[in-house]
Amino acid sequence: MSQPPALPTLLALLLAIRDPDVTLNADQQKELFTIGEQLQLNPKMRDKTHAKLMSVIQSNPKLNESFTKYQTALISFLATENSENLDYLPTSEEVLERLQTGNKPNQIEKLGPKPENTPRSRSQIIINDIVVPILKSDNPPEVSKSLFQRLLEKLSQFSTDSDKLPRTLPPLF
């Protein structure tokens, strides 16, 4: 069985954990932190990291339901979106600013490693500058709540404008 692309999977996770019905226990938060560390070391989602992520998601029925809803919408949305346009995502500066307001200064880590003089792909930018810092924060659901409003608005607009998504897709807010 082939895996969905890493980017929609990770963004769907960040949207799902912000839903008010979704709560993460301490073990699930610890696993997300570990996944963030693994992604920081190697932003390409290997099978082991993907399996661990899916295990966390599937162990929480509310998270799994919300994740599935967002992943379906994101796969369709990202397939039609201009790959250079990232304005619907928080910037790395917005992520750092949000993390600094929610954490003690000594808990803030630098973003994931950036290869010197090597252009980074869109996925590498998103994983290193957005996903990893959020997963490694003290409270990923709270951090996500304040950062993804533009993406939610884009997804909502896309789902109402598009015949490609199932009509049964629940509201994205």
Describe this structure in words.
61% of the residues lie in helices and 0% in strands. It is mainly alpha-helical.
Class per helix and strand makeup? mainly alpha
Order of helices and strands: HHHHHHHH
The oligomeric state is single chain
**H/I helix tally:** 8
Number of strands: 0
Strand proportion, as a percent range, falls in under 5%
Distance between the termini: 30 Å
On the 0-100 scale, what is the average pLDDT? 78
Which regions have little confidence, pLDDT < 50, spanning 5+ residues? Answer: 104-115, 164-173
Largest sheet: none
Q: Tell me the radius of gyration.
A: 15 Å
Topology overview:
Elements: H1 6-16, H2 26-41, H3 47-58, H4 61-80, H5 92-102, H6 122-135, H7 140-147, H8 149-161
Keywords:
173 residues; mainly alpha
Brief overview, please?
With 173 residues, this protein is mainly alpha-helical.
